[in-house]
Amino acid sequence: MITKTQRLLGRSLVAAVALGATLGLSGTAQASQAPVAGHVYQATNNANGNAIAVFDRTANGTLRAHGTVATGGRGTGASLASQGGVTREGSLLFVVNGGDDSVSVLSTKGGSLRLRDRISSGGEHPVSVTVHHGIGYVLNHDSDAIAGFRYTPSGELRKLPGSTRHLTHPKGGGMTDAAQVQFSPDGRSLVVTERGTNAIDTFTVRRGYASRAHAHSSAGMVPYGFDFDRHGTLVVSEAASGSASSYRVAPRFRAVTKALGNTQAAACWVVVSGHYAWVVNAASNSISSYRVHRNGSLTLVKAIAGSTGAGPTDAAVTPDGRYLEVRLGDGSVQSFRIHTNGTLTSVDTERVTMNYGIAGLATD
Question: In 45-59, which positions are buried (b, 16+ CB within 10 angstroms) versus exposed (e)?
Answer without folding.
Answer: bbbbbbbbbbbbbbe
